[in-house]
Amino acid sequence: MISLALAGKPNAGKSTFYTAATRAEVDVANYPFTTIDPNRGVSYVRTECPCLDLEERCGNENCRDGKRYVPIELIDVAGLVPGAHEGKGLGNQFLDALTNADAIINVVDASGGTNAEGEPVDVGSHDPLEDVDFVEEEMDLWLAGIVERNWEGVERQSRSPGFDIDEAVTDVLTGFGASEADVTAVLRGLEYPSNPREWTDEHREVLARRIRERTKPIVVAANKADIAPAENLERLRETDKLVVPTTAEGELALRKGAEADLLEYDPGDPDFEITGELSDGQRRGLDGLREVLAEWGDTGVQATLDTAVYDLLEQLTAYPVQNETRWTDGQGNVLPDAFLLPRGSTPHDLAYAVHSDIGEGYLHAVDARSKRRIGEDHELEEGDVIKIVSTAS
């Protein structure tokens, strides 16, 4: 399962984002380090369900009238403060929790209402652009420290016949989730001494930064955007980062309202419908939120998740079925499963995603739309419905 981690300084709204996205109850408070132990929950990315091409909707529990929600893991970890890579705050604990994430969502207080340490200040008095870069810098310096502390082992290995720097560096970075392919690709783009004993701190810092960029890409959730000065959002959007204006509190209010049958709303919708009795205060709050939706398209929470998975990680959604005519499994369930795969994946990759035995026994695949057999090297596209023929089926 794809795993996303919420990063950022304390009190930026990470736990509110997490609660809205997972509907799991966690501590949310107006002081630093509300979160100590990482919270892990299931959230969803949203895409169009192939059942829109059928006469009737599929009825899957993760499909809402053609809006398909595909599960991912979401991790909420302790807030990050300047100097975290040196162990300040809960720095090491925070950074350790990020090692297994596929991508990072940097939750930034776009309103400028919290200082660098996460303490409340007047809205607009802190520059949120400072919070965009410092998360990356802390991660890069932390990883550089890991490389530095383990470099002596690389130097020792370099004295042995058959030394391979790709393998040696991979051993150092395995715990960070970097594969040998990642290390090889990064090293090919760097200039460095062939003898590891001649490497400087700068060489190791550049290596760490490039590995982090490759294995832990970042999208910025410009949270509290509904109360942020307009110039803050403009300046955030002018950076070279992926930035999504977000109101986690607004999303949480909509999801709670839908659960209480007061609203008709699906995550990621551009609007909602009031279906229950509300107080005048609630109606005024929702009127303000409706203006936000009209401007941004949604509250930003769903858009941030979708951007991280489909844009940053370049994933696609594929649907394996047993019956290519009815798009069902062996029990007659229509489009029962949805799998996230990297772009460029093949039907054989999908077979392995379903089960290793299916992959090992793979014979061929059929495109359920065209009813035609497709080659093993055929690249899947978003929304493909595929019948896999395997000896293990």
Question: What does this protein look like?
Answer:
By secondary structure, the protein is an alpha/beta fold. Among the domains are: 3-38 and 77-137 and 217-309, Rossmann fold, CATH 3.40.50.300; 315-390, Beta-grasp domain (Ubiquitin-like (UB roll)). The chain is built from twelve helices and 14 strands. The chain has helices at residues 14-22, 91-96, 129-157, 165-173, 180-188, 201-215, 230-237, 248-259, 280-296, 301-312, 347-354, 356-360, and strands at 3-7, 39-48, 63-64, 67-76, 103-109, 218-223, 242-245, 263-264, 273-274, 315-321, 339-342, 362-367, 372-374, 384-390. Helix 5 (180-188) packs across helix 6. The longest helix has 29 residues, at 129-157. It is flat.
Brief summary of the model shown:
35% of the residues lie in helices and 19% in strands. It has twelve helices and 14 strands.
Provide the CATH superfamily of the domain at 3-38 and 77-137 and 217-309. P-loop containing nucleotide triphosphate hydrolases
Quote the beta fraction: 15-25%
The fold-level CATH name of the domain at 3-38 and 77-137 and 217-309 is Rossmann fold
Tell me which oligomeric state these chains represent.
single chain
The value of Rg in angstroms is 23 Å
Care to count the β-strands? 14
Largest sheet: 7 strands, mixed
Report the span from N to C terminus.
Answer: 22 Å
Overall geometry comes to flat
Structural class from helices and strands? Answer: alpha/beta
The overall pLDDT average reads 90
Count of helical segments?
Answer: 12
Reported CATH architecture of the domain at 3-38 and 77-137 and 217-309: 3-Layer(aba) Sandwich
Helix and strand run: EHEEEHEHHHHEHEHEEHHEEHHEEE
Helicity range: 25-40%
List low-pLDDT spans: 27-35
The first-level CATH class name of the domain at 3-38 and 77-137 and 217-309: Alpha Beta
